[in-house]
Amino acid sequence: EKLRVSKPSNAYDFGQVVNAVIANKDKAACADLLTVTDPKTLPVLLSNKLEGEILLIFVQSLEHYIVGKDPGLAYQHLFYLSKAERFKVVLALLSKNEKEDVQQLFDLLSESQSDQYSLEDLESLKKVYEL
């Protein structure tokens, strides 16, 4: 039973969907959530709730479901995710393996073409993710 995801109207709704996605380890539903969510709104929707688990399932969903279809959207989500409160804290707590997950997504983005980012943009964002 796949989670049905509609566009969350506020941070509370967004948080509920994220919790359900994590509880079910449902990357496909997470990808649906990220597809209907404007990347610019991520910092507000996450407010101070960002955690390692959330960062990782977002990264894995972008990697498995979104980057192949819409690398620009994947880039935008990574960019705005890095603006979220607690981003630096969460990043500092990632394990080596978890960092490799993030690195893989950046590798896929650098192999993709999009008018939403240049390789320079990608390089500067990688520094933000400490890769």
Task: Work out the helix count.
Answer: 8
Broad shape: globular
Q: What do the pLDDT scores average to?
A: 95
List the domain count as a whole number: 1
Share of residues in helices:
55-70%
- What class do helices, strands and sheet pairing give? mainly alpha
Keywords: Cytoplasm, Repeat, TPR repeat
Subcellular location: Cytoplasm
Organism: Tichodroma muraria
Pfam families: RPAP3_C
Question: Secondary structure elements and their pairing?
Answer:
Blueprint: H1 11-23, H2 27-36, H3 42-46, H4 52-66, H5 71-81, H6 87-92, H7 96-111, H8 119-128
Helix pairs in contact: 1-2, 2-4, 4-5, 4-7
Domain RNA-polymerase II-associated protein 3-like C-terminal: 7-99
InterPro entries: CiliaryAsmbly_MitoImport, RPAP3-like_C
Main location: cytoplasm
Task: Give a quick summary of the entry.
The protein is mainly alpha-helical.
Key structural traits:
131 residues, 8 helices, 0% strand, mainly alpha
Structure, described:
It is found in: Cytoplasm. The chain is mostly helical and 131 residues long. The protein has helices at residues 11-23, 27-36, 42-46, 52-66, 71-81, 87-92, 96-111, 119-128. Helix 1 (11-23) runs antiparallel to helix 2 (27-36) and helix 4 (52-66) packs antiparallel against helix 5 (71-81). The chain has one domain. The chain is globular.
